[in-house]
TrEMBL record:
Keyword Membrane: yes
Subcellular location: Membrane
Keyword Transmembrane helix on entry: yes
Name this protein carries in UniProt: DUF4870 domain-containing protein
InterPro entries (alphabetical): MamF_MmsF
Bilayer topology annotation: Multi-pass membrane protein
Organism of this sequence: Methylobacillus rhizosphaerae
Primary location class: membrane
Highest taxon of source: Bacteria
Phylogenetic classification of the source organism: Bacteria, Pseudomonadati, Pseudomonadota, Betaproteobacteria, Nitrosomonadales
Amino acid sequence: MSDLITVPNADEKNIAVLTHLGGTLFSVFPALIVWMLKKDNSPFVGEHAREALNFQITLLIGYVISSILMYILIGFMLAGILWVANIVFCILAAIAASNGEEYRYPFTLRLIS
């Protein structure tokens, strides 16, 4: 996010929080819907939705890889690690969004820009 973005209002913060937390239950869908609807109207919400979408896409790729690796039993551990990472990082992102701050998910492929 750039320094020129105005301070987000309470509604924008709430939408960003729900976008991050929605990823824990519904994968890419909340972030994709919010990003498509709000990216032009609210830079704050658009940035958070884009970041959440990139993270959820990265997780989906990780889950596909872990399902392939389940044949050699390593995939079960990888799937568990991804599940925990999803919950932890989504909560951290939601906290940052509720404070009106920028958040960048670690280990994320930036596919949507």
